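step 3/5: co-fold with protoporphyrin IX containing FE
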Amino acid sequence: MSGRNWDRVPIDAQSVDAPLSLSAIFLVVTVGSDHAALSKVASALSALDDLAKNVGFRDLSGRLSCIAGIGADLWARLSPDGRPRELKTFAPVNGPVHSAPSTPGDLLFHIRAERADMCFEFERILLDRLGGSVTVVDEVTGFRYFDARDLLGFVDGTANPTGLDLPASALVGDEDADFAGGSYVVVQKYLHDLNAWAETPTHLQEEIIGRTKIDNVEIDDDDKPRKSHKSLATIEDDAGNEYDILRDNMPFGRPGQKEFGTYFIGYTRYLWVIEKMLQRMYVGEPPGAYDRLLDFSTPHTGTTFFAPTRPMLQKLAEGA
Ligand code: HEM
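step 4/5: write C-alpha cells
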C-alpha cells in the first residue's frame, strides 16, 4: 500500500463507529453569510469535543457522541484551498414516479446517546453557543424501536459493515489522502404512509424490503423482474466487488400529528456509492422498476455533508 498505511489509521470521522444508540438527534443548520457568523461557528466546532466530554462525563454509560458534517458551500468558506474530492451539494434524483429533493444544510450534527436527555442537553448547549450565527432548518429526534425495527416493522441496519469492513466502507482512504479518515454523509428525512403499509399483505411487504418480517432472513430475488429494496441498494462493480455503506437510520414520529418517519443517514467512503443506490431506488433497475418502498415513504429532505476527522475539524476551525 502506498504512502500512509491506511489499515492503521485509527477509526475517525469523529465517532462514526459509535454503537447503535437508543436515542439520536439529527440537527441540520445553515450558517449566516457574514464573517462574524463564520467565526462563531468555527469556535463552536473547535469546542465540540470538550462539549461532548462535559455533557458525556455526567453519565459515561450514556455513551454520548456527536459527529459534525460540513456541506460543500460551508466547506468552501472554511477552506477555499482544498476540499474532499467528491464533496458537492446533494443532487436531486428524479424517477418515473418518485423524486428525491435536495434541501439546504451547511452543518449536520448527528448526536447519539443511550439517554434522550443527554442528546437534548448537548443540543441545547450547542445551539446556545451557535446563537444567531445559524438557522435551524431541520431537527429530528429519533428513538430505537424495539429490536432495531423501523416503523414499517422491519429490522433495519442488519447488513451494516462491522469490524475492519466498517472503516473500509465508511472512511475515505488513500484515494484522497489529504482527507483520509473522513466520511461522506447523506441524510434524507422520510415520512411513511402507515395506513397504506398496514393494508399491504405481509408477504408483499417482505418482497418489497427483501427480508422476512419476523425473523429478518434475506429473500433471494435475483431472478425476479422487480427487485427488492435490499437488492436495489446492493452495489457491485464489474468485477463483482460489493460496496457497502454504514447506515444509522432512526425512527421518529408524532402519532398525534399522524407523523411516522425514518431518518435515513448513510456514511460512505465514496459518495458515488450512495448516489448509485439512490439512482437504482428512484429510477429503477431496469429503469422503471423502482423501489416500491417509495410508494409508502416520501423524502422531505436530502443533503450531503463531509465529516472530517477530529484533527481536520480542528484545523478547519482554527483556519477560519
Ligand atoms: C437495507 C429500510 C432508505 C440503503 C435495508 C433494510 C431495511 C431498510 C429494513 C434491510 C435490513 C438491513 O440490511 O438493514 C429502509 C427504510 C428507508 C431506507 C425504511 C427509508 C424510508 C434507504 C436509502 C438507502 C438505503 C435512502 C441508500 C441511499 C440500504 C442498504 C441496505 C438497506 C445499502 C443493505 C443492502 C444489503 O443487504 O446489502 N433498508 N431503508 N436505504 N438499505 Fe435501506
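step 5/5: annotate
Residues 116-130 form the longest helix (15 residues).
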